[in-house]
């Protein structure tokens, strides 16, 4: 038993070492990728349910290695978070997103740019200044910038975060709660925090053929948003039948593969004059 124990330990140690080595390699590659413009935002349209027009996009980062292929964010955002590279990455996406939205604005299309903000970024003491700086440099009207924060980020240190959120709001940007419904159980923060928009997580997106309880959750979120006067973005819309259950008198935006996958900026331009009737 002792011997096999040692054997297993050795095996464990080897696999630990190779995992650590792979991680270190990934970190180095990511550091390099940030310098060589391999990290780029893609954009996914957010369509106004009423007008069928694209009124916003969410920036979703991609790694396009020089040797080809696409690496999705789930494979490098966690490493970026652990190593602090997320600050540099986040700033890059924020800058490119703002410059892009300004370009669309200059060509006659007012498109709100939604940027994902990670916990690490949000905790930086100068985060508000960074946002202010990027708005200033890009000349994007603050009303066309939206910051997406998850419930867990918002709730991590509620009292301190209220101050941070108020600070950000004072710049004139909008604040959205990402993956709404998947994190915190308490909803009281919605009243106390200067939030503008709820993004209903795609795990709640069901259609007319779904169980009544699934539909009930979506209806409850819509009712909550309505009474708190919050905008709603429904994520993960893949089928027309999912739109039927989304009855809201507030501003309702739809986002999902039904309209478009996240794509490079050049593919968004032509979509901006299109009407997505459903
Ligand atoms: P998220 O913020 O919840 O983004 C929505 C994810 O759902 C995106 O995955 C998007 O491509 C995907 N999606 C959109 N419509 C549909 C649909 O109809 N069906 C399905 N099945 N999926 C859909 P993606 O692009 O792989 O991003 C994954 C996560 O990575 C994001 O989740 C976000 O948490 C993170 N992320 C992406 N870009 C950034 C960034 O610039 N900064 C930070 N901090 N995180 C980012
Ligand atoms: Ca998001
Ligand atoms: Ca989300
Ligand atoms: Ca998510």
UniProtKB/TrEMBL annotation:
Signal peptide: none annotated. It comes from the Bacteria. Residues 23-276 form the EAL domain. This is EAL domain-containing protein. It comes from Paraglaciecola mesophila. The lineage of its organism: Bacteria, Pseudomonadati, Pseudomonadota, Gammaproteobacteria, Alteromonadales.
